[in-house]
Amino acid sequence: MIQLNNVTKYYPSSLGNQYILKNISFSFPENRNLAILGANGAGKSTLFRMLAGSEYPNSGTITSSASISWPVALATGIHPQMTGRENTRFIGRVNGVLDLEEYERKVQHFTELKHKYDLPVRSYSSGMRARLAFACCIAIDFDIYLIDEATSVGDQRFKKKAKQSLMNKSKNANIIMVSHDIKEIKQFCDSAVIIEKGQLKFYEDLEDAISVYRKL
Amino acid sequence: MAQVQHRSRLGIWLDVIFALFIRGMQSRFNDKFGISWAIIQPVSFIFILSFIRGVMNGSETHTMPTFVFMVYGIVSLQFFITTLSSSSKALKKDKPLFAFRQVVPISSFIATALFEYIVKLVVIIVLVIIMWFLGIELVLKDPLTVIINFTLLWLLALSIGIIFAISTAFFPEVDKFREMAQRPMLFISAVFFSLQDVPQEYWHYLDWNPLLHAIELSRQAAYPSFGAVGVSQSYLYGCTLVICFLSLVIYKRYWKQAISV
After folding, report:
1. Coiled-coil intervals in this record (chain A) (predicted)?
2. For residue B2, is it within any domain?
3. DSSP 3-state percent helix, strand, coil across chain A (nearest 5)
């Protein structure tokens, strides 16, 4: 489904280029819920952002025939001066949602913002903003959802709801997840990819991957 | 759940530009004063400057009404400057949105510049209405050339803006340089004088500036008796073409790095 072709990614620094991936060709296996594991600074988030198309490798390409979401909890695209509804419409337009009104209704219902949905986002609490961002993503049908910090959204009740909706999604769609929370990973994923020293390795069985990860 | 339609690349591109354009309107004009300020500010500026020039040499400047003379200068200059500065800030402003794979910097450059174009069109309409009330006779001999020059100016500002936006992403200091370089534009671009007011031996200090050519040529196109000298339409075309090409080359080479840093 997702294919990395000869991908190199580095960050320039005063100590020379810091390589995250070096000439990696790798294909993410199909129809699996994957966890991306790795130590701090190994490049999990960078890989994640590259999969999302938010960032690009320095050389090589990443191709995919499936539609991939943006990182679920990402709230950066939400403009504080615009209302929740205007923000939703923007995201809908960018992603090519067919029926914007229906999309709006779904997001409004899911976020439980009610009439506040038509107020500027700057008047929202941080939890409400996170709910809006989460709902905008989950209300679109993607083949693959990218999840980071999904369960840190909103209050206890909304967290549960978010988790439940992701569970439902994972039946028809696939999930790629970055988290340090092993319990959460076990809930969602069945396989894992470990990123270490610029190399990617696929583990069919999640338990194997976790035991390797613990030794890192 | 919401269905997503399959779009061609061009379709995605147009959708994104439209979405960014609407977003720009909603976020910039959410206060009632915002939209009127975009119009009032240039109009009041023109009034003050044309008043000063009017005091100096009466109601006619080189066979043009002084007010119209100033309108051509100031609207073109402001159009250039606002398009340049907003497109050179577009990359930074829309950076969070590049998290969506569909949104690429060129879309936000175009959406920003399109927005400036429309704002200035409204400004021009307001000015025409004001002129009608002031009883100034409006002559527009060759509207096509005026529109072409206006659009060339826009394309030029957008291209320079793209170059600055990309270089600012790597070297933030460049933006300071742009702000500094913009300041003297008012004095070297034939805004409140014409090139024919300047002795010929000093022309080479001024006639490299495509903005000056655009302004003088537009005046000439509107009032054939204006008598613009030392300016050339092909120079304006050439300049725009070269800078536009250069900016696209730089964009193509560096845009991915620019949003990844």
Report:
1. none
2. no
3. 40, 25, 30
With CA atoms as reference, report the closest residue to A48 among A202, A175, A216, A205.
A175
* Interchain CB contact of A103 with B (< 8 Å): yes
- Rounded to whole angstroms, the Cα distance separating A124 from A113 reads 9
* Contact present, A167 and A197 (Cβ < 8 Å): no
Report the number of distinct structural domains present in chain B: 1
pLDDT at residue B32, rounded to an integer: 65
The distance of A164 to chain B (nearest Cα, Å) reads 15
The C-alpha of A87 sits at a distance from chain B's nearest C-alpha, in angstroms, of: 8
pLDDT band at B59; cut points 50, 70, 90: confident
B chain contacts of residue A68, beta-carbon cutoff 8 Å? 101
**Tokens 């999840």 correspond to what residue?**
A147
Residue B59, token pair as written in the block: 């109601």
Domain residue limits at B213: 9-260
A106 to chain B: which residues are within 8 Å by CB? 1-2
Cβ within 8 Å, pair B100-A55: no
Using a 10 angstrom Cβ sphere, with 0-12 exposed, 13-18 middle and 19 or more buried, the burial of residue A214 is: exposed
A36 interfaces chain B, CB cutoff of 8 Å: no
Angle at B178 between CA B173 and CA B182, to 5 degrees: 155
Residue B4 lies inside a defined structural domain of this protein: no
Question: From the CA of B161, how many Å to the nearest CA of chain A?
Answer: 22
Domain assignment present for B1: no
